[in-house]
Amino acid sequence: MAARRAYSSLPAPNTAAAAPSINSAFIPAADLPKPLFRRIASQLAYLRSQGKDPATVSIPNPFLLHRAGQRADVSALTGLERFYWRKPQFSARRQKLLLQQYDPSILPPSPLNPTAEPRPIQWEDGTVINWEGEVLEKAAKQSPYDGRKVMFKGHIDERNKPQKVADRQERMKGMDKRIAAWRKSKADDKIRARPSLPF
Q: Which segments carry the region annotation Disordered (predicted)?
């Protein structure tokens, strides 16, 4: 049932609708997938209900995360500012389905479809629509202690390891003398254990 519901909101594959337009400057609204078409139509209807009718409109990219606002507190680990985020309106799974059914050049840029310069969309009445938002690059991997104000406590073996290694090195310095003394004590024990009588 869940799989049927996920597929029901997507249009059936249509090669005629999925083919890119001949005009490379704009993407005609008729070429868009139905879910994107409906979302743009609702955004334009809301703007016009507010008395706005601009020739160019910027709409949040439904495939990306968007920063909603700044939090009052900062991160306890890194000390950096924190923000509220809005999740993508299309999940990664749904984006992948759209990429399989439509030409990637007519879809909004996303981590699954990184486009350097996305083309604007031309609506039926001539309104030009641009996608708002940028594809965030993945941060470089860093060690657990880089850029953190609070260090991890670690396991007890890890905390005791430096002292344990130092004690081991100190004992290894006089190891030859201890081995010689141990061998001499064993030899002395053997001599003392011998019977004094020959029988």
A: 153-199
